[in-house]
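Take a look at the protein record below and tell me what you see:
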Amino acid sequence: MTDDLAPVTAEALRERMRSAPVLAGPLPAFDPAAAGPEPGPLFARWLAYALDDGVPEPHAMTLSTAGADGRPSARVLMLRGVDLGLPAFHFASDAASRKGRDLADRPYAALSWYWPRHGRQIRVTGPVEALDRSAARQDFLGRREVSRVAGFTGVTSAPLESRRAYEEARREAAEHVAAHPDDVPRGHTVYRLVADEAEFWQAAPAQDHVRLLYTRDPAAPGGWTRGLLWP
């Protein structure tokens, strides 16, 4: 294994990336004709399959937002819940974080999941709303103690002057959680993205990938249209 502090050239990286296995398989089959008229049940089946197959952290997803200036920002976080009928996807953050500020300015976002073992990717976009304080409270108090301590440590996304400052804030947060186990940070917020578009991508070793796009359409039967995209 390469030392993560050792110098690496761009040419060496390029050659290593070119030689790395991609979509080696075996990969599951996907028949879009049998996918159903709405995206929620298909999302549930793909996520359940990843969980059953032991895919590490299959509920980890990339959240992409844009601020008032239109500049995009992406980060990985955990799916906290899903309403399959809409479908809608829940995630949590501090309202003062960059993603929280972005969503206050532009309440629209994209989510994506990628499971290399299965060659599957899901992408959804839609408007985002903040849920009420009861949802935030339920989410936060349902977390492990170490996660709740982290939630009270410092200000998410704010500059950190030193590791010593972090360690001191972490100690104070641990003391606070021990003394007030039912307390919830004021900024802790659960957000809900209601999908208006959902794309399911199934890779194939021969590169004949399958892409199925659902688009919300109130005039369509069931409220959705669906169709294939070129790979």
Remarks:
- The first helix runs from residue 10 to 19.
